[in-house]
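Lab channel / #folding
Pinned by the channel admin:
"Please post every new chain as: sequence first, then the structure tokens as a reply. Keep commentary short and put observations after the output so the thread stays searchable."

First post following the new format, from NK:
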Amino acid sequence: MTTADVGIFGGSGFYSFLDDTETVEVETPYGSPSAPVTIGDIGGRRVAFLPRHGARHEYPPHRIPYKANLWAMKELGVGRVLGPNACGSLQASVKPGDFVICDQLVDRTRDRPNTFYDGPVTTHISFADPYCDVMRSAIVDAGRELEIPIHDRGTVVVIEGPRFSTRSESSWFASAGWEVINMTQYPEAVLARELELCYANISLITDYDVGVEGVAPVTHEEVVRVFAENNEKLRELLFNVVPALPATRDCICATALSGARFEV
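Reply from TO:
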């Protein structure tokens, strides 16, 4: 089977710039992933691209086949996964067009399969630091070199969707000091950790959430418009980050299952 070193959850806007790509169908124990995987080359690294919402954006956030998507990456030999995503801002200091490289996550979802380990062996992975520090550093360094407005830390609160937040919900999240709101980072991040994959997100801020005082309610049209305007910056960042990622993995992600299983 064709293999890859790095995985990216993103649409055709990223891999359409590559030459000599190959599309592969991957079947998993959890069904088919969101779409066929396209594999190409960035800076000498083989990269697997998978649109998390499907080729035609047919999967809403709460129905994305997250388990199949992550398993497909693992099956292809991927060790590091980049998860760019459109997000709302919960703080006035985090502006539309900014990039946030989150270091923490708060799960507010309620109806998503979120583990590969349903027994019979009980498995408890550490998720204290949900994002790979090695990858985060590489992304931040590349972003600053490209002079992209980038925040080197932040907490993302993940809501169930597909609706946006009420004003009260958004104000509650903002009052906690959290910076970013999103609908897809969970369980994507934890499933990557359960498979001992390195994972980092790139939160592209498309709007202010309604809890930010004086801001009009977000619309889907506005989110799409800002994301499209910044898509080239995101592509440039990804094409700089991938070759800069270390070939070897000696972070906690690579050994996440060590000591995590309760066996008698």
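NK: The chain has a mean pLDDT of 92.
TO: also worth noting, The chain has one domain: 6-256.
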